[in-house]
Each structure stands twice: as C-alpha cells, then as structure tokens.
C-alpha cells in the first residue's frame, strides 16, 4: 500500500490482495464473523476491481453508518417455499449476506426444475447487483435481480421522495464472458452520493432536488430532499415496476416496508439447448459490435465490457481510493475499539 497524487487528490494504492487484507481487518470491527467477512469482502473487492470505487472499500463506511446496522440481526431463513420458490427473511442482515443465501437457493432450484424465483425481505444494502446475476450466468442460467429500496427518489413533478433508486440487473451466459446489464432507475445512486459527500464534492446538475423541490448540487441537501429518476417518466416507470416486484419479494414484511429483492433464475434449455443459446447470443453480440461506427468512435461498447476489462486490468495492477476515505476507515476502527 502506498499513496500518490492524482489531479490534486491524494490516493492510496492497494494490490487486489492488499485490499482484501484491509477488508479482513476492518469488517470484524463491525461485528462480522470470518465467513461473513469473506462474503462481504469478495463483493466489495469485485466492485472495486470493476471500477466502481464507491461500491468498494468506501462502502464499508456506509455499512457502518446505516441505521439498520445498529439493530439486532439473525441468520437469513426461509419462511415459505415451493419446489421453484423461496421467500427468505433476511433477519436484518446486510443484503450482501442475505443475497448470498438467495443465490444458492436460486441455483439449486433452477438446476432441478429449470426455473426459480427467490424473494428476500428484512435486509438492506446489497451493493452491485451485477455481482449476483453474474454468478447465475456462470452457472449457465439467465438471471434477473430486481431491487426496491427505501424512498429517496421523487416521481416526476413531486417535491418529496416516494420510491427507491430501485436497480435492475440481468445476467446472460454466452460462449465467452457473460452479458451483464445492471442499472439504477435513478439519475444518481446513493452509494455514489455518499462518496461524493465524504470527499466534500458536489453532485452534477440535474440529478437531485432539495427538501422544497428546488434543484441542488449539494449532497446533504439531496439527502434531505430527493434524487431524481433517470430519463423522467421512463425511469420512473421502470423504478415503479421494481417497487412492485419488491412487494412480491416481501417488502411489506420488512420493518419499514422498504427493501425487497426479487431474484429470478431460468435455464435456457427450458426453450432451447444451453449451448445453442450461448452460441446464438454470442453471434448476436458480435453482430452488434460489428455495426458501422460514427466518425471518431473507436468501438461499439456493450454493457459490462468495460467493467470486465477493468477487473482483469486492476486484478493485475491494483486499485486506489481517496486518502481521506482511507483515513475515515482507520478512524472508524479506532472509534469502535475505544467504545468496546
């Protein structure tokens, strides 16, 4: 680990193994056991390697400060099931742990029956959704993860929040790297807002309003007000659909009737042989990549291409985070030690 200056911002550099070791040292301070630490660290490291700094090491600060982190928690458990479905009470565990259980249930049921749907409630903060659907795609399954979260997004024309950032993610097996599609339905994601706020920065114009509905670039004013949808009514419509799927996942059973995670896994050979599906989707993607380009465009980039390339590069070269974020993580551990 060492530091360097990047455009006036001091950065801390880590190898991939060094970042994992740092997480192994920090996460137990938050009450996570060895197995839980490994599950969470794997998720955060993957996000960092894929280029999503705000979902990497800095997200530990979000884990520590989340209001639900201070409440008692129990292991996730199945509350209702059929051969192709399971409804899981997350036990107020962080979503990275609850979704780990959900993924295993989905893979097992889909492998046996061709299809699985798993809902998770009473959990919070899953991190990057592509991480989960990639696991399904790697198992030869088509995966979808729909998320409904706490209200921080204002519908078009509203001056107060009514739905969550509500991301949707898909994973598709191909003959090579899986095709991963992961997008929030808000104009800005809460984890990214948190990172900007901790760095003392400003939001881009047009992504948030304050508590009385005026546009704002101040992160704290946005927290007190609302984030906006992406693409106006289109983003709102998709976000509302995620909210509806969250209800199916049991969000109304969560203490604040907020978080609901719906995971769907399908075997392609319900309709076409898996290897045919892989080949035909790969051919489709190759055709899209070969589309004639506009002047000045070097490549037609598909969803997840950049992230997967970054993961390979950063796996070899390492990652970096803002030095102030690293200092906040160290202070977090120190403060917890002093109170124990």
From TrEMBL:
InterPro entries: Mal/L-sulf/L-lact_DH-like_ah, Mal/L-sulf/L-lact_DH-like_NADP, Mal/L-sulfo/L-lacto_DH-like_sf, Malate/L-lactate_DH-like. Keywords: Oxidoreductase. One of its GO terms (molecular function) is oxidoreductase activity. It comes from the Bacteria. Belongs to the LDH2/MDH2 oxidoreductase family. PANTHER family: MALATE DEHYDROGENASE (PTHR11091:SF0), OXIDOREDUCTASE-RELATED (PTHR11091). This is Lactate dehydrogenase. It comes from Candidimonas nitroreducens.
């Amino acid at each position: 680990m060492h530091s360097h200056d990047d455009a006036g911002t001091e950065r801390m550099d880590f190898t991939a193994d060094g970042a994992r070791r740092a997480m192994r040292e920090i996460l137990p301070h938050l009450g996570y056991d060895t197995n839980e630490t490994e599950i969470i660290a794997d998720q955060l490291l993957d996000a960092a390697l894929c280029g999503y700094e705000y979902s990497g090491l800095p997200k530990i600060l979000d884990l520590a400060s989340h209001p639900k982190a201070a409440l008692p928690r129990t292991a996730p458990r199945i509350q209702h099931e059929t051969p192709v479905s399971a409804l899981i009470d997350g036990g107020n565990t962080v979503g990275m742990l609850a979704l780990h259980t959900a993924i295993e249930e989905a893979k097992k049921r889909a492998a046996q029956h061709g299809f699985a749907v798993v809902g998770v409630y009473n959990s919070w903060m899953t991190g990057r959704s592509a991480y989960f659907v990639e696991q399904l795609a790697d198992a030869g399954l088509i995966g979808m993860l729909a998320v409904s979260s706490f209200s921080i997004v204002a519908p078009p024309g509203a001056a107060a929040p009514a739905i969550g950032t509500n991301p949707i993610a898909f994973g598709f097996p191909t003959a090579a790297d899986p095709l991963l599609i992961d997008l929030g339905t808000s104009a800005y994601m809460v984890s990214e807002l948190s990172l900007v706020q901790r760095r003392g920065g400003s939001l881009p114009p047009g992504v948030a309003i304050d508590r009385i509905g005026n546009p704002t670039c101040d992160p704290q004013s946005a927290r007190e007000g609302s984030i906006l949808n992406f693409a106006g009514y289109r983003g709102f419509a998709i976000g509302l659909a995620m909210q509806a799927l969250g209800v199916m996942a049991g969000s109304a059973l969560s203490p604040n009737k907020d978080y609901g995670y719906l995971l769907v896994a399908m075997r392609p050979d319900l309709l076409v042989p898996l290897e045919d599906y892989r080949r035909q989707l790969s051919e489709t993607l190759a055709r899209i990549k070969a589309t004639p380009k506009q002047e000045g465009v070097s490549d037609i980039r598909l969803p997840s291409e950049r992230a997967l390339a970054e993961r390979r590069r950063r796996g070899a070269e390492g990652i970096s985070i803002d030095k102030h974020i690293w200092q906040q993580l160290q202070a977090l551990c120190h403060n917890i030690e002093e109170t124990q």
